[in-house]
Each structure stands twice: as structure tokens, then as C-alpha cells.
Design brief:
Structural class: alpha/beta
Strand order of the largest sheet: 1-7-6-4-5
Keywords: Acyltransferase, Cytoplasm, Fatty acid biosynthesis, Fatty acid metabolism, Lipid biosynthesis, Lipid metabolism, Multifunctional enzyme, Transferase
Shape: globular
Bound molecules: acetyl coenzyme *A
Organism: Lactiplantibacillus paraplantarum
Radius of gyration: 19 Å
Number of strands: 13
Catalytic activity: malonyl-[ACP] + acetyl-CoA + H(+) = 3-oxobutanoyl-[ACP] + CO2 + CoA
CATH class of the largest domain: Alpha Beta
Largest sheet: 5 strands, mixed
CATH architecture of the largest domain: 3-Layer(aba) Sandwich
CATH topology of the largest domain: Peroxisomal Thiolase, Chain A, domain 1
CATH superfamily of the largest domain: Thiolase/Chalcone synthase
EC number: 2.3.1.180
Strand content: 15-25%
Distance between the termini: 15 Å
Number of domains: 2
InterPro entries: ACP_syn_III_C, ACP_syn_III_N, FabH, Thiolase-like
Length: 327
């Protein structure tokens, strides 16, 4: 099926907002450095919220907006690199919270590219007439060393999602093309969440001794990766869709750094109107960044039915992916 109708979109953010200035009490940094190098002014940080509670809030809003019964949902995918538990995964918890008894539910982890990988899965899984919830939800604050200025200033918590239907009788919403690529040999440039090896037979090794729980990132390498591979991925996806960049209303890019978005825009000759940004408010929320941005674009009527859109995610893996749709 090429039918891909986004019937609702929603976001959920923790109530606590942390301004750049507050971070200067934890590490040697400044509001100016963070604003100029990244475009970030604040981020939302989970205090009582969890990856699951944020995802559930998004799911409830999606059902409310679309007026669908929870039992009409066939598939729930949560993209996250910061789940509350390794098992049960986040999506089954969402299924239970909303009572979507008919849905199968599972998580995927493609770091910051998770949402756009989830779009491809939804597109390929849904049979005509079926409906999915696709949610990106993160509490990256639990993976941050809050004294490491090279990473802590970048990340934030939040969730966003879409209710997607493959109902051929709906007049709008089509899948037009996509492109995905993985660069596993560069994976060590961005790591987080190493699991401890703690069984009675475990033997100390260099890797095990070096407890890499918090984000470790070679920022320059990731920056170079993104500014090279994101334009390539968009070009490939547009080629598959047989479209030009000028045909696209907006490029919903992963919000990692305003400079990366500007560089991609320059390489592809895009206008600033084609490059929505909200990183100033939320920082990098990994798999949640594109659906949060999209939900705001819909709420502010910056996107209309029939508009062609490109979603692009990139990050840990290293991974990149782009999906072209008609809204
Ligand atoms: N505050 C103040 N100074 C800082 C800070 C900070 N928070 N962080 C670094 N600096 C200093 C550095 O120590 C360095 O000082 P020096 O010149 O005296 O050595 C100077 O600022 C410049 O540092 P660079 O690392 O060269 O700064 P750069 O311009 O490369 O910006 C950044 C760093 C923002 C991390 C950038 O490289 C970037 O955005 N990279 C991409 C990161 C990214 O997208 N990651 C997410 C991927 S998504 C995922 O999958 C989770």
C-alpha cells in the first residue's frame, strides 16, 4: 500500500524547563556558547515524568484527536534509546495504559533516527484499513553526565507521535519514497547506556572497566557525518519519489544542532521557510524531535493537507534515514 494518512499528531513535554543559565552552575559553560554553537536556549527535563508516561500522554492525545477507540489500533511502535525498562518495552506499557487490546506493540532503538525508521516500519506493516500509533519518547537526561559540558548542554526530554492509517478510502496521505543507511563502523563516535556485566564469572576487561553509561560523543565527527550524509539521504529519497527539493513544503529534520540544519539547507539550496526549527526550546530529544516539531507545525497550521514533506533523522549507529510523504 502507498496509503499513509497521518490522522493526528501530538507532543508531551516534562513541565520542568531548564534554561542555559542554570547549567552554568553545574559545569563551565555559558548561555552564549550554547546559543551560538547549537541554537539551544532551554530544554525540558523529566522530574516526575518517565519515558512511558510521556509516551502514554501522546497516545491519549492521539486517540482523543482522532476520536478512534483504542481497540481500533493494530500496531504501536515506540522509538526510544532511553526506555524505563529493557523489558517490558515502552510500547506494551502504552498498549496497557490506553487499552489497545488488538494492537501488537514493540520498541525500536535507532537513537535519533528512530522515528523515521519507525515511519518505514509502519508503512510496510499496515494492511489496508489498519491503524498505527508511532511515538518517539525519550528521557535522555538519565543518560547524561550533568558535569560533562561537551554533551550535557545538548540533550532534552520529551515525546511526540502520530496516528497513522492505511485506509484507502481516505483522500489524503501517501507514502512517496524513502532512503535509509547505517554506518556501524562509525558507531563508537556516539555511545550511551553501556550495560554493566555483573555475573559471577565476568572477567575485568578494558571495556568493562570503563563504565560508559553517560553519553560520550566525538561531536566533530558526528557533525561531519550529519552534514554529509543527511543531504545525500534526502537526495536519494527525493529521487525515489521523483520529486525536486522545491516541490517540498517542509523538511522536518532531526533537531540536533541549528548549525547542522543550516548546513543541510545550504547544500540543498533550501529556503528558511522549508526548514522549521524548534531546537531553541527543547534541545536534542533524539527520537522525539521530529514528531514534536511536526505536531507544532500542524497546530500552528504551517502544513496543509496535500503538502509534500520530508522527514529526516540521523544520529547514533551511526544511522540516517529520510521519508517523503504527502500529508
Ligand atoms: N560550553 C563552553 N565551551 C565548550 C562547551 C560548552 N558546553 N563544549 C565545548 N566547549 C569548548 C571546547 O572545549 C572547545 O574549546 P577549545 O577550543 O579551547 O578546545 C571549544 O568550545 C570548541 O569546541 P568544539 O567541540 O570544537 O565545538 P563545535 O563547534 O564542534 O561544537 C558540538 C560542538 C555542538 C557538539 C558540535 O560538534 C555538534 O553539534 N556536533 C554534532 C552533535 C550531534 O548532532 N549529536 C547528536 C547526534 S544525535 C543522537 O543520536 C543522540
Amino acid at each position: 500500500t502507498t496509503n499513509f494518512s497521518i490522522l493526528a499528531s501530538a507532543k508531551a513535554l516534562p513541565t520542568t524547563q531548564v534554561m542555559n543559565q542554570e547549567l552554568t552552575q553545574l559545569m563551565p559553560t555559558s548561555d552564549n556558547w550554547i546559543k551560538q554553537r547549537t541554537g539551544i536556549r532551554s530544554r525540558h527535563i523529566a522530574t516526575t515524568e518517565t519515558t512511558t508516561s510521556l509516551a502514554v500522554s501522546v497516545a491519549q492525545q492521539l486517540l482523543h484527536q482522532s476520536q478512534l477507540a483504542a481497540t481500533a489500533i493494530d500496531l504501536i511502535i515506540v522509538a526510544t534509546m532511553s526506555p524505563d525498562y529493557l523489558t517490558p518495552a515502552t510500547a506494551p506499557q502504552v498498549q496497557a495504559a490506553i487499552g489497545a487490546e488488538q494492537a501488537i506493540a514493540f520498541d525500536i532503538n535507532v537513537a535519533c533516527a528512530g522515528f523515521v525508521y519507525g515511519m518505514q516500519l509502519v508503512h510496510q506493516y499496515l494492511q489496508p484499513g489498519q491503524t498505527a500509533l508511532l511515538i518517539g519518547s525519550e528521557t535522555l537526561s538519565r543518560l547524561v553526565d550533568w558535569h560533562d559540558r561537551s554533551t550535557a548542554v545538548l540533550f532534552g526530554d520529551g515525546a511526540g507521535g502520530m496516528l497513522i492509517s492505511a485506509n484507502p478510502s481516505l483522500m489524503t496521505g501517501r507514502w512517496l519514497g524513502s532512503h535509509y543507511a547505517t554506518f556501524g563502523t562509525d558507531g563508537h563516535y556516539l555511545t550511551a547506556g553501556q550495560q554493566p556485566r555483573v555475573n559471577p564469572w565476568s572477567v575485568a576487561t578494558d571495556e568493562a572497566d570503563d563504565n560508559r553509561w553517560a553519553f560520550q560523543m566525538n561531536g566533530r565527527r558526528v557533525y561531519d557525518f550529519a552534514t554529509k550524509q543527511v543531504p545525500r539521504s534526502i537526495e536519494q529519497a527525493l529521487m525515489q519519489a521523483d520529486l525536486k527539493s522545491s516541490d517540498i513544503k517542509a523538511f522536518v529534520l532531526h533537531q540536533a544542532n541549528a548549525r547542522i540544519v543550516a548546513s543541510v539547507g545550504q547544500k540543498l539550496n533550501l529556503t528558511s521557510a522549508q526548514l522549521p526549527l524548534n531546537i531553541a526550546q527543547y534541545g536534542n530529544t533524539a527520537a522525539a524531535s521530529e514528531p514534536i516539531l511536526f505536531a507544532e507545525m500542524v497546530a500552528q497550521q504551517q502544513v496543509q493537507r496535500g503538502d509534500k514533506l520530508v522527514f529526516t533523522g540521523f544520529g547514533g549507529g551511526l544511522s540516517v534515514g529520510s521519508a517523503v510523504i504527502e500529508y
